[in-house]
Amino acid sequence: MAKKKQPDPNAPEVEKPRVHKDLEGFDIQINSFGEITTSFDMDRVNEFLNKNVDDKKLRDREDIPGRKTRKKKRKSSEEEE
Length: 81
What we know:
With 81 residues, the protein is of the alpha+beta class. Helix content is 19%, strand content 7%. It has a two-stranded antiparallel sheet with strand order 1-2. It is elongated.
């Protein structure tokens, strides 16, 4: 039977990943049943994503409040002529 390795007492603890300042304290885990558990309400996460992520499928929709829109590119002078 294989022996279990003892944890190295000199090894540093696992660092938490860097997150956006609006998501400070956000933690996500998957339990033994495969369910996703988070420290934030999913509505709060979705609100953050709507505000900060450009979704190309939703660019032209006006009914989503707080959605970030991408600015249209200007045509260069060569393309206009």
